[in-house]
Amino acid sequence: MASVGSEDGDIGFQIAPMVDVVFVLMLFFMASAGSQVAERELNINLPGSKTPSGAQTAVPPTPIMVDISADGQVSMNGKTYGSPSDKEIASLREFFTTAIVSGNSDPEKQDPVIIHPDPDAHHERIMDVLNAAGASGVKNLTFN
Amino acid sequence: MHHKSKGKAARAATRNPAEEDPEFQIAPMIDILLVLLVFFMSISSTEVLQSNHTIALAVAKEAKQPKKNPGQIIVNVSWVAINNMGSIDVDDQKYAVASDLIPKLQDELLKNPMTRVLVRVDRAARWSFEREVLKAVGDAGITNVTFSVVDKAVPGQ
Asked: Average pLDDT, stretch B117-135?
């Protein structure tokens, strides 16, 4: 056993337990690093905020109202998108991409998307819709 | 040629003596272990925010990386499912009603006109309560609002 110290009965430095302790610590930090959850952000502008340049557009934009019911059902103009348990809402993303974003990466030219949740709608479902809008490239997003 | 090959064989014998395995070197192994330990310690984040760790944030995989913002106010909105009531917490100070936040938000906006509000809302919170918080933020004159989410579900939440 490797040890450093005098021969008069002192314990001395034990390297094998030190290696064991270092292994355990490393395993702990490997496990905690893998299960780390990072916080991210979803940005919106509240109603009443100015447009970036304030310039008048020739054609007024048509706001698109997205309704979220208390049970989490997302709908627009009477048409439902996904099921209440569907987090990705692929059909909504497709709608955003084709109807709003395609050819209109400039937020001033995009039709504004207004989210109108039911008073009893859960925050998580609202974030699912915001996430879908953000992933599709919608920049002009606000709440009713 | 013959004396050259004899010399070569002698040099090979000294370089690679027969039947001698390399010894286990513990010092380099400990060095590597310590480097790995420091690496994993550093990537295990120990950053402490002005945040309430009891809030279960919503999951949004495509959300953006957080940006550093010097004028940021973090508003924590907790939710108790048992009695369907929410509470608001800013800088360790609790607020029963969202409108009580307005003076504090206005003070912060006066100090820094670029102030933004980072809202950390429990995933089970109802829109009716959250709307009051957003209304208070809007009434204070701040329109740059960001929701805090996580990139994956937290085990146990």
From this structure: 92
